[in-house]
Amino acid sequence: MKKIFSLYMTCGLFALTLLLAACGGADNTQASTPTTTTGNQTTSTVTASSTQNSNYAFLSYTGKGYTINYPPMWAVKPDDSNGTTFTNPSDKSAVLHVIVNDHSEAALQIEEGTSLKDRCKRSGNVPETVTINGVTWNQGEYRCSAATADGSDQEIRTLDMTKPVGNTYYSIAFYATPQNFDATVKHSFQTMTESFKVK
Questions:
Q1: What is the dihedral of CA 186, 191, 193, 198, to 10 degrees?
Q2: Over the stretch 94-151, which tens digit does the pLDDT of each residue have?
Q3: Domains in the chain: how many in total?
Q4: Per-residue pLDDT tens over the stretch 152-161
Q5: Quick check: is 19 in a domain?
Q6: 158: which residues sit within 8 A by CB, 6+ positions away?
Q7: Cβ–Cβ < 8 Å for 69, 31
Q8: What pTM value is reported for the model?
Q9: Domain enclosing residue 163, as ranges
Q10: How far apart are CA 27 and CA 11, in angstroms?
């Protein structure tokens, strides 16, 4: 009887060990972003890239010459010039746009067109440059009033590579309504931009 009980206990402990190993915690460490100031310019360097947040693992997308991670439920749609938009289906005002060009053009100009001077004002307090995975980007944040009467205002952050990669210029613009912008940066946009790599 003792041998049978001992056998059951051994099997039970083995099964529990397997269960605990299978349920091991995911690595949810967030990237550290140290900020330094040089002269009149503030720079930020991303030292690590997170591919998960507390709720789900991000998926990897491969575009023309680049990869980026994005939330699995977001809609992915190529634009008309080798770039891609990523849209949150539960908040369609939250969009990240990877822009691919064969010439230098600021992301804000591409997103907002010729009326941006009348509608967009610099906002936020972000470093003027940021380095992501070894590549330096110019960075800005803007509050833009709606271009149409039935539209909503947008908070936009733009990243423009300071130098082309080969003959290609990459830019990233991400935006949401001002009231949702900070939360979307924290839960999605930050992880997405920190994962961006040129192949």
A1: 180
A2: 999 999 998 888 888 877 776 677 788 988 789 999 999 999 999 999 998 887 767 7
A3: 1
A4: 899 999 999 9
A5: no
A6: 106, 107, 108, 111, 139, 140, 141, 142, 171, 172, 173
A7: no
A8: 0.71
A9: 28-198
A10: 30
